[in-house]
Amino acid sequence: MQIRLLSQLRCRVWSVASGLVGLVVLVLLPLGGCAECDKPAPPAERPNVLWIVWDTVRADHLSLYGYEKPTTPKLAQWAAAARVYENCISAASYTVPAHASMFTGLLPPEHGANNAYMHLDARFVTLAELLGAAGYETYMFSANPNVTAERNLTQGFDVVEHPWGLRYRDRALQIVTSKIAPHDRSTELADALRSGRLGPWNIKACGELAQTGVASWLQQRDPRPPFFAFINYMEAHRPLIPPEEHRRRVMTPEQVRRSYEVDRSWLPSWEYTFGLRDYTDEELAVIAGTYDAAVAELDDMTDRLLKALEAGGHLKNTVVIVTSDHGEHLGEQHMLDHQFSVYQALLNIPLVVHYPPRLAAGRDARPVLNSDLFPTLLELTGVAPPPDLRTQARSLLAPQTARPRFAACPSYLPRAIRSVQAAHPDWNPQPWLQGLQAYFDGPYKLIAGAGGRRELYQLERDPGERENLLGREVAVAQRLEVGLRSYLAGLNPAPTLTTPLTGMSEEQRKRLEALGYLGGGPDDGADYEPTSAPASTSRADGR
Prior knowledge:
Blueprint: E1 12-16, E2 24-28, E3 48-54, H1 73-79, E4 83-85, E5 88-89, H2 95-104, H3 108-111, H4 127-133, E6 137-142, E7 159-161, H5 169-179, H6 188-194, H7 208-220, E8 227-233, H8 244-250, H9 253-259, H10 266-273, H11 281-311, E9 318-323, E10 329-330, E11 336-337, H12 344-347, E12 351-354, E13 362-364, E14 368-369, H13 373-381, E15 405-409, H14 414-423, E16 436-441, E17 444-449, E18 454-458, H15 474-489, H16 506-514, E19 536-538
Parallel strand pairs: 3-8, 3-9, 4-13, 5-14, 6-7, 6-8
Antiparallel strand pairs: 1-2, 4-12, 7-19, 9-12, 10-11, 15-16, 16-17, 17-18
Helix pairs in contact: 1-11, 7-11, 8-11, 9-11, 10-14
């Protein structure tokens, strides 16, 4: 099991032995006096790493992957010189377990981070920690309130910044308010603005500030050691507020008008998912179009970032990754958002890696996982993994032609259940109170629920998962059932964990509520206090 050894020590130095890249010796220093400890200068050939996550972006709504709308023309142009993985799934269908898997190389049953335990246990070693110990300087800009120190997903980053931090929040609020049209009636965010209740927990759709943050950090740092920079963009995560110019790119004029009217707020969305109400086909097309507009905004935003960093000379010898943590339901299987499901709308995500020295440009249809980025980046940077690490993740430098894969929705979302129960006291939530697992073997996919639910799909013939083959291909279903049990038996189960609820600020709670993660409703009208949050977190010890 990948467990942190002697985690109480605050300073660790890894040195390269005999000039061999990847052979490292861990030197443990005593407590105290570590603030002045310098990271060792790594070999010059080690590449930088820029890892960009488009939060909540599904692959099949990118024109790079054949989508008919022009959502990502700039990404497609840039990706012509990159490796485009066409068959990538996320290890989990929502933020916390997906990021935990990407950062550790472990699957959800192994690291245990999920809706019931929204925290990466400190015993697990992250990619940022390994790179930092090997001499890398590390930076994170996260617009997702779940990719924060409260979730321990910042473990190993020297500098962590968020748009609600003191440095950015005034400008962040300006950006968000500029995107919300006065006539917008589609989300709680628009209602909050009109009533003067737009608090700092609703300022996630301001990713342009990430460019300011990472460029500033790169300009101020010592250019000699390599860097690892991680950016999480939240433009495609609800509540969606893409600028009108991006709506016009992917929707008809009538759809643009309707995109400000169709109610996409939390309660009707969950009522639709739980079968308690319907949207018309026209309304669902508008919802999907608004999502596409947000993806188009991400395309522009990322293009500006990459061009600015290139012009500043920061992308020389740099591995650049564009991927996602999970997708989004847009009406498939009568569902919205990204909970209560392991369907392909949530698991099939984009993955593009640009590093010509080691990865040839082109398309790659071999089966991969976003958690494969963990061993891939260790291999590219010449940093050794933890000696006791056992993982199902495999390097993208040599993907396997065939491999079983696993993904999970480990725990249900209590906030959604409570809000719908309050509005529908007679509704029975029992079918939704179960974790879900997905097991992939060749073209087949088995969905298994803790309550006995089973579904079987042949994805090559039925990528939309419309035909459950469970009763027709019994032998295949039995084979995958045995395969799933064997796969799970080969994992290291997560240690016993106790939910760490202490330490969450009121502001953090409200940010998560506004995004639908916790109990209660959206912004409740608390005043905006511009001095109540730190701008960033700097850690000499990498924690």
